[in-house]
Design goal:
Shape: globular
Number of domains: 3
Largest sheet: 12 strands, parallel
Structural class: mainly beta
Number of helices: 1
Strand content: 35-45%
Oligomer: single chain
Length: about 450
């Protein structure tokens, strides 16, 4: 079974790593490093740690050796061995590393994937050891679902969290398994940030008990295995669970609108802005500098696009706006809500678990709101009226919940109050206003205008 390692980080790989061919030929993902473990600038690293590099695809193991993957103490090479398995290269030193010492790992661009493509550039990273040898076995902090959970969504990703960084290479098709009775569930495994995840290839059966098992073959970077095999059981419910709303090309923008994007400086926007069918003149307050097919702004870490810019910008924006409307209709049309008219629209002070929520009127947040769930859970909020967030109110994520999986479909106007903080993707039919100092981790996608006033907006 092919392991998919650190998938979320792949979104950070630059577009130039997608090696394009002719229009009628497939696009081939070029090889790249997605992470190292220890990470860049890590400190207090155990002196008996192994060093790992994880790739975005399967590599040619014959190109990964002690010549192409090295570890240096200053300018002195560290003696060690190199192994490759399941998209992860591992350097193991012959003896323990020295305490309180800076080390630099290097992977050269002689490393290639199975098709013979090399990584674009040499990859280097540094870390500093501590003073201890790690002989402590890692422990399991939590599982999701928890043991004996019921009514688990049938599209659930099964995960386990550890007390420390683990060896990616130790997670295999035999060390993390899920079974229904005695029948193995087909799926893939990924590991990132102390969390291993089993992703079933197909939706799980309804109302059936499953058992997940992680064996003592999983280890930390120092080679310490978990003390005992961890097994937990859960039972699915009747529902498949929510799937994310497909944003299509509209997901390329942190702010997308049809009629205007107006800003009172100075805002800090991370991500691209798009406006269509309105022209560039309807994007105000950014101090734009024109380029071919886009503009730039000192307030935007990204590019600014409008319908009157050079092709293919206009065509791309038309598609993006169409996809935004399709996404809005998808979110508004999801049937069988898990929660209807919760709090009669006042959700201040609530903790919201994953699911589909529906209100036939206005939703207000006069006090802080918590959205709690795992990294794979999905929230869709269907709001027929306005959505108003009071000043200084915060939405907080817990349990691993991610803003990219939270969708606020609002038929009316959205207003985020002064210095408030918002999480999630807004799909608004009427308009979105961020009052002075409000911040947002998500996307503002409006079928009319987006109004800004000294705001920080960051793509999820």
């Amino acid at each position: 079974m092919k392991l998919l390692k650190q998938i979320g980080i792949l979104a950070l790989i630059p577009l130039f790593l997608l090696v394009g061919c002719k229009d009628d030929e497939p696009t081939i993902l070029a090889p790249a490093v997605v992470s190292s473990n220890p990470a860049e600038n890590d400190v207090d690293v155990a002196t008996n740690t192994a060093v790992e590099i994880t790739f975005n695809k399967e590599m040619d193991a014959t190109t990964i050796n002690t010549t192409t993957f090295t570890l240096l103490k200053g300018t002195t090479a560290v003696a060690g061995t190199v192994a490759y398995s399941e998209q992860t290269a591992t350097f193991s030193s012959v003896s323990n590393l020295e305490a309180s010492t800076l080390y630099t790992g290097t992977l050269t661009n002689a490393v290639k994937d199975m098709s013979g493509q090399a990584i674009a550039n040499n990859y280097t990273f540094s870390f500093t050891t501590g003073v201890v040898v790690d002989e402590t076995p890692p422990t399991v902090v939590s599982t999701n679902p928890t043991n004996n959970s019921t009514n688990v969504a049938r599209n659930k990703v099964i995960s386990i969290t550890f007390s420390e960084a683990m060896s990616s290479a130790s997670f295999t098709s035999t060390s993390f398994i899920v079974v229904q009775g005695t029948n193995p569930v087909a799926g893939s495994v990924e590991y990132a940030d102390k969390v291993a995840r089993f992703i079933p290839d197909n939706i799980l059966d309804a109302s059936v008990s499953y058992t997940a098992t992680v064996t003592t073959d999983v280890k930390d970077l120092a080679g310490n295995a978990i003390a005992i095999t961890k097994a937990w059981t859960f039972t699915t419910g009747a529902k498949a669970g929510l799937s994310v709303v497909n944003l299509g090309a509209s997901g390329n923008y942190v702010i997308l609108a049809k009629t205007a994007i107006n800003n009172s400086p100075t805002s800090e926007i991370t991500g691209d802005l798009g406006l269509s069918p309105a022209a560039t003149s309807f994007i105000t307050g950014f101090g734009l500098t024109d380029a071919t097919g886009y503009a730039t702004s000192p307030q935007v870490t990204g590019k600014v696009y409008a319908a009157d810019m050079a092709p293919p910008t206009n065509t791309n924006l038309t598609t993006s706006v169409e996809n935004m409307i399709t996404a809005y209709n998808d979110a508004s049309g999801r049937p069988s809500p898990d929660f209807s008219e919760l709090g009669t629209g006042n959700i201040g002070g609530m903790t919201l678990e994953a699911g589909l929520y529906k209100w036939t009127n206005t939703v207000t947040m006069p006090s802080d709101v918590t959205i709690s769930g795992s990294a794979d859970d999905v929230w869709i909020f269907q709001i027929a009226g306005d959505m108003t967030m009071s000043s200084a109110v915060n939405i907080t994520l817990s349990g691993g919940a991610q803003a990219k999986n939270i969708f606020w479909q609002v038929a009316g106007e959205v207003v985020l109050g002064t210095t408030s903080h918002f999480e999630g993707i807004i799909l608004s039919k009427t308009g979105i206003t961020l009052q002075t100092g409000a911040s947002m981790n998500g996307r503002a996608l409006s079928q009319t205008a987006v109004i800004l006033d000294k705001n920080a907006v960051t793509k999820p």
